[in-house]
Write a structure and sequence with these properties.
The protein has 132 residues and is mainly alpha-helical. The protein is built from six helices and no strands. The protein has one domain. Helix content is 73%, strand content 0%.
């Protein structure tokens, strides 16, 4: 592992990366715990704050520019913010099924799929992991 590309990146990219990497074990933890108890709610709010940080910070990252200064990942960020609002609203309304579906969808879309794109050649995490 070679951290220089990440450490020399902008603070926005560093914050974005730290929040996203923190989400990975947090997501596994939340999905492993009983649903609806105090820990689930507290960790869920931590997840919401971190995902909001990831989505908002990504809007300031313009390394890949396909549509003006933006890329398709910016659309995912907007969808993540909408999904967060829907998931929180569903949880508050005790609509467990909608909350679960939204959170699972966001986990796959915003963490897994978007995360895989960060591993493409030329991206900072690719450089960190491969040294190239």
């Amino acid at each position: 592992m070679h951290l220089t590309p990440l450490l020399s990146a902008s603070s926005v990219i560093q914050i974005h990366t730290l929040a996203a990497l923190t989400l990975l074990p947090l997501t596994v933890t939340i999905f492993s715990l009983p649903r609806g108890d105090r820990r689930h709610r507290w960790l869920g709010w931590c997840w919401v704050v971190l995902m909001t940080t990831v989505a908002v910070s990504s809007l300031a990252i313009h390394q890949v520019q396909l549509i003006g200064r933006f890329s398709p990942i910016h659309i995912l960020s907007a969808l993540a913010l909408v999904g967060l609002a829907q998931a929180v609203t569903a949880a508050r309304r005790k609509d467990v099924l909608r909350h679960r579906r939204t959170m699972v969808s966001m986990t796959w879309g915003a963490l897994v799929v978007a995360g895989l794109f960060t591993l493409l050649p030329g991206r900072i995490l690719f450089q960190v992991l491969t040294g190239g």
